[in-house]
Amino acid sequence: PIHAGRRIVEPVESLVLGFTVLAYVVTAGLLLSDYLRTTIELTLATYWAYDTADFSFIFGRFIRVVQPALYGALIALLTRTWSPQHAVMLLAGVGFAVSYFVQAKGYVYHAYPVLVCSLAFLGICLGKGLARALAIWRDTGNSLRFVLLPVVVLLALPPVKKAYDNVVGWYSTYNIAWGPTGQFRQAIVDTVNHFAPTRQSYFFAFSTHPFPGFPTASYTDAEWTGRSIVEPFIPALARINEVTDPKIRERVVRAGEYQRQMVIEDFQRRPPTIVFVERSLARLGMNGVQFDDIAFYLADPRFEQIWKNYQEYPPMGPSRVFVLRADDP
Question: Could you tell me the CA-to-CA distances from 261 to 205, 227, 249, 292 in Å, in that order?
Answer without folding.
Answer: 16, 12, 18, 17
